[in-house]
Amino acid sequence: MKIGIVGLGRMGAAMSQRLREQGFDVIGWDQKAEASAKVAAGGLRIAANPSEVAAASEIVISSITEDNGARGIFNGANGFLHGDVTGKLFIEMSTLQPMTGRELAPLVEAKGARLIEAPVLGTIPQVRAGTLFAMVGGDAEDLARGRVVLEKMTRRILHMGPHGAGYAMKLAANIGLGAYVQAIAESLALGAKQGLALDQMLDALSESATATGWLKAKTGVLKGEPGDMTLDIRTLRKDIMSAVATGALTGVPMPLSAGTLAALSAAVEGDYGSGDIAELPKFFREAMLQNF
């Protein structure tokens, strides 16, 4: 089966490798030439634009950073919908706002194609192992067709409902992640002000009722040691911003998320945006504390 992938950043590149290992014929594209060149060096065939990817594929996956970028690869010059896409299935795997999914679906259907959204929980190690958790929005019949691809990258696929439902669930999950990282930042900052050592605090937190797999995996980074990048601060800020915007449009107050967004935005402005989210507590201690 011929699969297209647009968006060859960390996740897209890992997905392209995983699918090739599973026997799919994969073609890709990224707006950044360096991203395309990196995966091309590993043997991935690169198209000239998204339209060419769609033309060469039966199923097209997209993994894009933000909503306007997703709109561009569908509707922009040389976007997916620029050519004949009759009968094709698009699997949109970005973390977008629910309203974006509801906006794109009828445009795709008007061109004779189908669209499902499948944002995932998990990152690069889970892609490589095929153990992502996918939250799908769209028609069940289209999901059934897409399973041939999704099942090669996931341990479980949950159909959340119509278009927009998958994105809503991903934002809801990332609200918890953002709040947890902010809670760790404040916990470590409070302890540091009271003279506690970082190693001592992380040891104690690992035994607490709120200890998580994320805390265990990121303890080294929280201590200042190097570690694999999973999710950067700038991207999490975008996701929390999308959650706050969605809440505002639907009448859901988001005071916790608004506070988390303020801290993430400060970190981005403080040149921490490209750092792993586990570096937020370090920024918080360095830049956000008051001295009396």
**Structural class by helix and strand composition:** alpha/beta
Q: Shape, please?
A: globular
| CATH homolog superfamily of the largest domain | NAD(P)-binding Rossmann-like Domain
Mean pLDDT: 96
CATH class of the largest domain: Alpha Beta
Order of helices and strands: EHEHEHEHEHEEHEHEHHHHHH
Q: Report strand %.
A: 5-15%
Helix amount: 40-55%
End-to-end separation in angstroms reads 65 Å
Instruction: Count the domains.
Output: 2
Question: What profile does the largest beta sheet have?
Answer: 6 strands, parallel
CATH architecture of the largest domain: 3-Layer(aba) Sandwich
| Quantity of strands, as a count | 9
What is the gyration radius calculated from CA atoms? Answer: 20 Å
Number of distinct helices? 13
CATH topology of the largest domain: Rossmann fold
Side-by-side strand order of the widest sheet: 3-2-1-4-5-6
- The poorly predicted ranges are none
Layout of helices and strands:
Elements: E1 2-6, H1 10-21, E2 25-29, H2 33-40, E3 45-46, H3 50-55, E4 59-62, H4 67-75, E5 89-92, H5 98-110, E6 114-117, E7 120-121, H6 124-129, E8 132-137, H7 140-150, E9 154-161, H8 165-193, H9 198-205, H10 213-222, H11 233-250, H12 255-272, H13 280-287
Parallel strand pairs: 1-2, 1-4, 2-3, 4-5, 5-6, 8-9
Antiparallel strand pairs: 7-8
